[in-house]
Amino acid sequence: MVRQNLVTSDDWLRALSDVDVDVRREALNQIAHAQVNDDLVFGALMRCLDDDDALVVDGAVFALGEHLFVGAVEKLCAVATRHEDARCRESAIAALGALGDDRARPAILGALDDKPPVRRRAIVALSNFEGPDIDEALARASEDRDWQVRAAVNQLGRDDD
């Protein structure tokens, strides 16, 4: 139904608010690749960022990032900086990097002090930003204790700026 664009906004709203966590998770997996233009559906995606299930939050973050929904920047920053699950923080950093909105800069820079997977994702996210603070952060990250973080900085080719 998703591939043929037969899912209605009402279908999405029902699925995203279903009591069964598996239904919400699957809806989020599907909606990330669907054509969605309804503010009510984006509102439901935003509410999923507050779900008790970390995989629902992760799915909502991914979907919002895939749709480049700039209206989610503040809530994505909150997930990136305060969520207890590192997978959610990492996904939020990825979505914020894709959005490239300058309001996300502090959250992405702050992620350079998180766990290694989040730090690696932050390096990639920073590729959409410029400025002395970004250059300084990348220089610091080029000496990170995690070799994959250092490698990510090296792949950007901006570590000598």
Tag the structure with descriptive keywords:
161 residues, mainly alpha, single chain, Leucine-rich Repeat Variant
Protein model, in words:
The chain is mainly alpha-helical. It has a single domain (9-156), classed as Leucine-rich Repeat Variant (Alpha Horseshoe), CATH 1.25.10. 64% of the residues lie in helices and 0% in strands. The chain is built from 10 helices and no strands. It is elongated.
CATH architecture: Alpha Horseshoe
How big is the Rg? 17 Å
CATH fold title: Leucine-rich Repeat Variant
Order of helices and strands: HHHHHHHHHH
What is the CATH class name? Mainly Alpha
Oligomer: single chain
Low-confidence stretches: none
Coarse morphology:
elongated
In brief:
This protein is mainly alpha-helical. The protein has helices spanning 9-16, 21-31, 39-48, 54-66, 73-82, 86-99, 105-110, 116-126, 132-141, 147-156. The chain is 64% helix and 0% strand.
What's the helix and strand layout?
Elements: H1 9-16, H2 21-31, H3 39-48, H4 54-66, H5 73-82, H6 86-99, H7 105-110, H8 116-126, H9 132-141, H10 147-156
Helix pairs in contact: 1-3, 2-4, 3-4, 4-6, 5-6, 6-8, 8-10
